[in-house]
Amino acid sequence: MAENNKTIEIDAAGQVLGRLATEVASLLRGKNLVDFAPNKLSGVKVVIKNAEKIRLTGNKIEDKKYQRHTGYIGNLKTKTLKVMIEKPEFVINHAVSGMLPKNRLQKEWMKNLTILKGE
Fold first, then answer.
1. Can you give the pLDDT of all 119 residues of the chain as single tens digits?
2. Which CATH number goes with the domain that contains 47?
3. Nearest to 11 by CA among 117, 96, 97, 105
4. What is the domain extent for residue 106?
5. SS3 at position 28
6. Is residue 61 situated within a structural domain?
């Protein structure tokens, strides 16, 4: 199944959210490995440290919105990034999952991602 069982630690302090998310998504898929295949798990685990020190560019802190629907009519819940940044693990997790292909392997790749607030 997974031959390349290695752990990569990334320090998120001062890094831009989107650029970090694309790098992590690429590592989780194993695109940097010689034996990359889109239909297999790479076995690489990624640990992100200092999640609360992530950097955002432009006016995203005010303008970016996260939406979810409760399932009832008229219940679309919207929160801004300013409110959601209190949980930086969710914000990074959401960004990385958005950069992965939407298929059966997405859940398995996300299990290999660990996000820590401090060191």
1. 445 679 999 999 999 999 999 999 999 999 999 999 999 999 999 999 999 999 999 999 999 999 999 999 999 999 999 999 999 999 999 999 999 999 999 999 999 999 998 88
2. 3.90.1180.10
3. 117
4. 7-56+85-115
5. helix
6. no
